[in-house]
Amino acid sequence: MLRSTVLPLVDEGALGFRGEDQQPMDDLSELSRDLIAVRDSRDRAAFGRLFDHFAPRLKAMMLRGGLRDGTAEDVVQDVMLAVWHKAGQFDPHRADAAGWIYGIARNRRIDMARRRPLAQPDEMPEIESLEPDAAQIIALQQEARHLADALARLAPEQAEALRAAYFDDIPHSRISEMTGLPLGTIKSRIRLGLERLRHELRTIAP
């Protein structure tokens, strides 16, 4: 079972406050604010929230990648330990918490695949490629362009609500607090935005 006891005993002042890259906290997702709390003040409660959020998602990611249950849990523990130790490198101007942590997980999985000993010829499994080929890269770039074009066609308030909810992973209630709008209005904008986005994607996609 995954446990947040991955947290080591460290000097509470090991990492200092990095004021030079601060930005308004209201502009950040809750996950990014928790990661900044770990980065700047070694906040164990914030780390616990990050662990509870990401551990099951990272395990599912590893299982989809072909790892066995026990191995997947070991990798997740290793990733979250790296999050604690490397939190000082987190820069919210360059990536949000989810993108930064998933990047660590992807690198761990690649390292693990490279260290895996070769099997005997008669039992060598077919190893899944970890790097996208040219066709996959082009397809991803096209999908990203289609999504950007579709978002640009939405009403600004709908596009803003969708970005906050799905790109920044901000709960609906938090969006309501940040904007000062009723929760029902936020949910309505997200629902209408999704409906419109689906329509626009069908129009744009070949």
From TrEMBL:
Quick check: keyword tRNA processing in the entry? no
Entry keyword set: Sigma factor, Transcription, Transcription regulation
Matching entries from Pfam families are given as: Sigma70_r2, Sigma70_r4_2
Task: Tell me the ranges covered by the RNA polymerase sigma factor 70 region 4 type domain, including all copies.
Answer: 147-197
Q: Name one GO molecular function term.
A: DNA binding
Per the UniProt entry, what are the Gene Ontology biological process annotations, in alphabetical order?
Answer: DNA-templated transcription initiation
The keyword Disulfide bond is assigned to this record: no
What region holds the RNA polymerase sigma-70 region domain? 50-116
Under the heading Gene3D superfamilies, the entry gives: 1.10.1740.10, Winged helix-like DNA-binding domain superfamily/Winged helix DNA-binding domain (1.10.10.10)
Q: Which family does it belong to?
A: Belongs to the sigma-70 factor family. ECF subfamily.
The molecule here is called: RNA polymerase sigma-70 factor, ECF subfamily
Task: State the organism named in the record.
Answer: Paracoccus alkenifer
High-level lineage: Bacteria, Pseudomonadati, Pseudomonadota, Alphaproteobacteria, Rhodobacterales
